[in-house]
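thread: overnight batch results

M.L. [08:02]
morning all. the overnight job finished for the chain we discussed friday. pasting input first so we're all looking at the same thing
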Amino acid sequence: MDDRIYLINLYDYYGDLLTLKQQEYFETYYFDNLTLSEISENNSISRNAVHKQLREVVTKLTMYEEKLQLYEKSLKIKRIIENLDQEIKEKIEELI
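M.L. [08:03]
and the structure it wrote out:
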């Protein structure tokens, strides 16, 4: 799986556990496609500081997934649902 998509999926699960600045840097880098230089200029900090924060975010997201496995469990649930009877599948999808 593309690392970028994987990280965005992890962010969907664990983004609220990051600091507001980390969320801002992640979102501007991954969602708005700004460069490290653009983010650093917008926030009046060094490019290296932005890079360091983004590396820390990746480390945290990966650590959260290793410990909690919410994203992996959701993929397993989706695979199970795909193989269910259509009526049961619709009822479960209504719940989630």
